Structures are given as C-alpha cells and as structure tokens.
Amino acid sequence: LVRVGAMLTYTYKAFGEEAFGQRLSQRATVCVNLHKKCGARAALEAVRVAQVMSFGDCLVLSERAHALDESSYEGIVRFADNVSDIAAAFARLVEDGGRW
C-alpha cells in the first residue's frame, strides 16, 4: 500500500459507533478491510462493513474471506487475493473517480 499511501488514512482500533463514525464518516470513500491476521481467509468483518456502508457512498475493498461470506457480499465488497492486489484496486478506484 506504500504507493498509494498519500491517499490513505490508517485507522486502527476504531471500536464503537462514535469512534468509528468520527474517524470515517467525514472522509472515507473507499475502506480497505484487512483481517487481523493478514492472508488468512477469515470470516468477513460484517459488522465493520455494515458500519462503513451506513455512511453512504463508500466502497469496501477486502482481503479474501470465507467463501460463504464472499458470495453473500458479492457486488457489495470487492475481494482481492493479497495486499498488493488491494493496493492496485484502490489505485484504480482513485483514478476512476470511485467507479466500481
């Protein structure tokens, strides 16, 4: 994510509606979701995705998740195989003005 780092705001430990909302609602148009253990096909952080989506026009890029989660969120969350692919997808979204 280094090459798109100037366009990213890193948020860690944004728990609870107030903290999460204060950090993301005003500026996020793309949210990058990484699992706690990068590279693991873990369950999708569905509560986090729902909170992000509740802010309105926000796109979610995520590491691969459990197959059932991916099929449930098809068209809502864009999944990538690794962090490099997430960075490339993020850069394309920025270049394309956020068009999915």
Fold blueprint:
Layout: H1 17-24, E1 30-33, H2 46-54, E2 59-63, H3 67-72, E3 77-80, H4 83-95
Parallel strand pairs: 1-2, 2-3
Show unreliable segments. none
H/E series, N to C? HEHEHEH
Mean pLDDT: 77
Number of strands: 3
Distance between the termini: 19 Å
Strand arrangement in the largest pleated sheet: 1-2-3
- What structural category arises from helix and sheet content? alpha/beta
Radius of gyration, whole Å: 13 Å
- How much of the sequence lies in strands comes to 5-15%
Give the proportion of residues in helices: 25-40%
Specify the overall morphology: globular
Largest sheet features: 3 strands, parallel
Describe the structure in your own words:
By secondary structure, the protein is an alpha/beta fold. The protein has 4 helices and 3 strands. The protein has a 3-stranded parallel beta sheet, with helices on both faces. The radius of gyration is 13 Å and the shape is globular. The two termini are 19 Å apart.
Highlighted features:
alpha/beta, 100 residues, three-stranded parallel sheet, single chain, globular, 13% strand
Structure at a glance:
The protein has helices spanning 17-24, 46-54, 67-72, 83-95; strands spanning 30-33, 59-63, 77-80.
